[in-house]
Amino acid sequence: MLRIDGVYKVFNPGTVNQKTALRNVSLTMKEGDFITLIGGNGAGKSTLLNCIAGVYGVDKGSINIAEVDVTKLTEYKRAAFLGRVFQDPMMGTASDMILEENLALALRRGKARGLRWGISNKEREVYRELLSHLGLGLEHRLNVKVKLLSGGQRQAITLLMATLNKPKVLLLDEHTAALDPKTASIVLDLTERLIHENGLTTLMVTHNMRDAIRYGNRLIMMHDGRIFLDIQGEEKKKLTVEELLARFGSASGQEFSYDRALLS
Q1: Burial class of residue 137 in the structure, from the number of CB atoms within 10 Å of its CB (0-12 exposed, 13-18 middle, 19+ buried)
Q2: 35 bridge partner residues
Q3: Distance between CA atoms of residues 7 and 58, nearest Å
Q4: Residues 6 or more apart in contact with residue 202 via CB below 8 angstroms
Q5: Distance CA 78, CA 83 (A)
Q6: Are the CB atoms for 231 and 212 separated by under 8 Å?
Q7: Handedness of CA 98, 102, 104, 105 (dihedral sign)
Q8: Which of 26, 149, 163, 225 is the most exposed, having the fewest neighbouring CB atoms within 10 Å of its CB?
Q9: 8 touches 189 (CB < 8 A)
Q10: How do residues 135-149 score in pLDDT, each as one tens digit?
Q11: Was domain 1-81+167-264 assigned CATH 3.40.50.300?
Q12: CA separation for the pair 230, 216 (Å, rounded)
C-alpha cells in the first residue's frame, strides 16, 4: 500500500545551515499495516510524513502509494490517497463552520459537486450514526460551531473526517500530544477502533514509548534520519520499554536521550 525507496531529504543545501533530515530511508507497508513510529527530536519522523504527504519534495528516491508513483505529485493531488491528523487539534477542522458542515466537506473530498441543496436529512442521519459511535454525545450537536468544542472532541472529529472516505494510507502525526493524558487515551482507543473497523493502513508518529509498543502490529524507530529498528508480530507484543532502549543502543551505538519519550 505504501512503498518508500531510498529517500533523501536535505534542507538548506550548500549553506552553513544544511541539514540532512532523511538518509536513504526505505519502508514498505502492506495493506492493513498499523505502524507506530518513534524517535528522538530531529530523528526525521515528521519530515518523513511530510514527504509522504507531498508537503516536501524528496531530493532522491521514490514514494509509491497503492502502486501509484506519487514522488512528483503535488500535495493536493496526493490528498486523494491520504488521510491525515495533525498534532494541533485546531488544524483538522474549520472552526467557524458547524459540525455537520465539517463532516460534509470531508465526505465530499475529491468528488464532483453540483448545485443541489447542501446537506440532506438522510445525510444528517448518517452523520448522527457515525458520531454516536464516538461516545462523546456529539450526535446531538450537529449545528454547533466546531470552535466551541474541546480539543479532544475536535481531534476525535478530525479523526472521523480523515477516515470517512477510507484513505489508502492514514498519517497520524503525534495526534494526541496536545491532549491531557485521559483525553489522549480516549482518542487513541478511538483511533485503534476506527483503524481496525475500516482496515486502514496507518503510520502513526508518537513520542510515547508505551503507546508505540501497545498500538499497531509494527514498531519503527528512527534516529538521525535513518530507520534503525523495525519490530513486528510476536516480537513486538512481548517488547518492553527497557528492551526497546537496549535494542536501539545495540543498533545505533548510542543511548536514546529523548526525555519526552522516556518520561511519558
Answers
A1: exposed
A2: 203, 218
A3: 7
A4: 33, 34, 35, 169, 170, 171, 172, 195, 216
A5: 10
A6: no
A7: positive
A8: 26
A9: no
A10: 888 999 999 999 999
A11: yes
A12: 12
Give the model's confidence band at 37: pLDDT under 50 very low, under 70 low, under 90 confident, else very high.
Answer: very high
- What angle separates helix 151-163 from helix 99-107, to the nearest 10 degrees? 20
pTM of the complete model: 0.90
β pairing state of 218-223 and 34-39: parallel
DSSP string across the chain: -EEEEEEEEEESTTSTT-EEEEEEEEEEE-TT-EEEEEE-TTSSHHHHHHHHHTSS--SEEEEEETTEE-TT--HHHHTTTEEEE-SSTTSSS-TTSBHHHHHHHHHTTTS---SS-SS-HHHHHHHHHHHHTTTSSGGG-TTSBGGGS-HHHHHHHHHHHHHTT--SEEEEESTTTTS-HHHHHHHHHHHHHHHHHHT--EEEE-S-HHHHHHSSSEEEEEETTEEEEEEEHHHHHT--HHHHHHHHHHHHSS----HHHHH-
List pLDDT tens digits, range 168-218: 999 999 999 988 888 889 899 999 999 999 999 999 999 899 999 999 999
CB 35 within 8 A of CB 171: no
Q: Which residue has the cell 480516549?
A: 186
C-alpha cell recorded at residue 64: 509509491
